[in-house]
Amino acid sequence: MSKADTKKYFLFFGLIVLVFFVVLEYISLSEYSDDVINYQKTIFPPRDTDMVVVLTGSSGRIRPAYELMKEMNAPVLFVAGTNARVNFDELAKGHGMDINYRDRIVVDNASKTTYENAEAVLKYADEHQVKKILLVTSAYHMKRSMLVFKNVLEDTGVEVIPYGTAVKPIKRDSWFKDEEVFKNLLVESFKFQYYKLLFAGTVL
Questions:
Q1: pLDDT digits (tens, 9 = 90+) for 23-57
Q2: Considering only CA atoms, which of 136, 192, 184, 188 is closest in space to residue 164?
Q3: Which DSSP helix (H) or strand (E) runs through 167?
Q4: Is residue 41 packed enough to be buried (19+ CB in 10 Å), middle (13-18) or exposed (0-12)?
Q5: Which of 100, 158, 161, 191 has the most CB atoms at less than 10 Å from its CB?
Q6: What is the DSSP string of 70-83?
Q7: What are phi and psi of 166, to 5 degrees?
Q8: How confident is the model at residue 28, as a pLDDT?
Q9: Phi, psi of 131 (to 5 degrees)
Q10: N-to-C CA span, the chain
């Protein structure tokens, strides 16, 4: 085989591999978009929830979690992963919280990643006999969050119930046409695959 033929062969082989991974990623994104759509659906959270946990990271999460805590009369709202300088007063001012709820709102500004968020929640849950958690985050972030929380809280007896906050509406037949939606799905899909590898052989 000549050098020219060898080069053509490797180029052809590389193209096949590229197409294969593009198809796999499209399938993965399609599945991920279906999950996001499902997490956008309104649920009626149980009234016996011990704690509402909200993961910070993007807008539109903390206020819904606060309203859920009041509506459900949950004993605690755990705000995970805030900026190091954030305290209750700043949080209350920024999100219109009643200062009378000060004793029921826990501000965690030590954890930074979803994994660290889950570890912080695990520590609090263990110390306060928490057995049922309502997990609030964006619908885009929820699949990865549930994967992480289920693994970190494995064998603890703590039940985690997902509550996805509103994101830009996603349609099954056109999500790939919207640049913002496509970008968000792509980023979260890659992060989900990373954690899936991290937790390989454990709870999925």
A1: 445 556 778 888 888 888 767 788 889 999 999 97
A2: 136
A3: none
A4: exposed
A5: 158
A6: HHHT-SEEEEES--
A7: -65, 140
A8: 65
A9: -125, -15
A10: 47
Tell me which residue has tokens 């509550």. 163
Looking up tokens 């209350």, which residue turns up?
92
Intervals of the chain under pLDDT 50: 20-24
DSSP 3-state assignment of 202?
coil
Query: In the chain, what are the domains?
Result: 1-204 (3.40.50.620)
The predicted pLDDT at position 26 comes to 57
Which tokens sit at 166? Answer: 């509103």
In the block, residue with structure tokens 């060898």: 6
Bridge-based pairing of strands 105-108 and 51-55 is: unpaired
Six token digits for residue 87? 């305290």
Structure tokens at 51: 């704690």
d(CA 58, CA 171): 21
The residues that bridge with 133 in the sheet, in sequence order, are: 51, 160
Residue 96 zone, left/alpha/beta (φ > 0; ψ -120 to 50; rest): left
Distance of CA 43 to the CA centre of its chain: 17
CA 122 to centroid of chain Cα atoms: 16
Q: What does the alpha-carbon distance between residue 39 and residue 138 come to, in Å, rounded to a whole number?
A: 9
pTM assigned to the model: 0.82
User: Hey, what amino acid is at 2?
Assistant: S
Percentages helix, strand, coil for the chain (3-state, rounded to 5) are 55, 15, 30
CA separation for the pair 196, 34 (Å, rounded): 18
